[in-house]
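Hi Prof. W.,

I finally got the Stage 0 sporulation protein A homolog prediction working! I wasn't sure whether to trim anything, so I left the full sequence exactly as given:
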Amino acid sequence: MKKVLIIEDDRSIAELERDYLEVAGFLAEIAVNGDQGLKKALEEEYDLILLDLMLPGIDGFEILRKVRAEKDTPVLLVSARREDIDKIRGLGLGADDYITKPFSPSELVARVKAHIARYERLTGG
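And this is what came out:
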């Protein structure tokens, strides 16, 4: 079973993401702040990380920077920040995709599936 880490401080959004991913056959874990999310992302193995940018503690950009220094796990940014500069910065730091809130949960699941499949093709996993 594929494992997804959701780093999101808005519990209702995190639970919505988790519920849709679990219905699609994924195992999903939630971290509700930047510090907890970074610790999980670096210490555990995930097939994909859903990462909010605006988090208490360490923000999403810093988490992305630190994860990319150690891992190639696909990262999808999910944020209310709609400015092009935020998207460009996130993608420039190594994010694989950027989804703005509000989002379609079914589109989110489709993107998760697509990125995991692509990563597996590239790594032979």
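The chain has a mean pLDDT of 96. Does that look reasonable to you?

Thanks,
D.
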